[in-house]
Amino acid sequence: MAKINDAARGKWLSIIGMALAVTRNYDPFMSPRHFKMADLLKKFDKTFGATGKSYGKVDGTRTRADIDKRRNDRWNFLFIAGMWFQDLFNYDFRRTEQCIIPYATQEGEISFCAYNTGIGWRNIIEKMHMTATLTKWYNDRGRHEIFAGGKSVKMENASHSMMLREEIVTKERQKDLDNLGIAKTAREEKIRARDAKLAQADEAEQAKMARLYRKHVLKEPENVEFVPINTIAPAKPAQKKSTEKEVGSFGD
Question: Taking the complete model, does pTM exceed 0.85, yes or no?
Answer without folding.
Answer: no
